[in-house]
Design a protein that fits this description.
This protein has about 70 residues and is mainly α. The chain has a domain of about 50 residues. Helix content is about 65%, strand content about 10%. The protein has 2 helices and 2 strands, in the order E-E-H-H. Strands 1-2 form a two-stranded antiparallel ribbon. The radius of gyration is 27 Å and the shape is rod-shaped.
């Protein structure tokens, strides 16, 4: 568990605990959530555009087999 954030005060030569408001905590939460979602979407777009899923591979194999059968017949 986090122990908290502290800031050094040069005038009193002591550490003061930083208290975040509810608004700041909510903003940070949603900014991390948005960043995570954007990274996940980019990850999915990248992998689904360059790599086929196993189902797509099976469908492409089936299509190629059907085309070969039509060419033979």
């Amino acid at each position: 568990m986090a122990k908290g954030k502290y800031k050094f005060d040069r005038e009193s030569l002591s550490f003061n605990k930083i208290q975040f408001s509810i608004k700041t905590k909510i903003f940070r939460f949603f900014s991390y959530l948005l960043a995570t979602l954007l990274i996940a979407i980019a990850y999915n777009v990248f992998f689904f555009s360059f790599f086929n899923s196993p189902k797509e591979k099976a469908l492409n194999r089936e299509i190629s087999q059907l085309i070969l059968k039509y060419e033979i017949a």
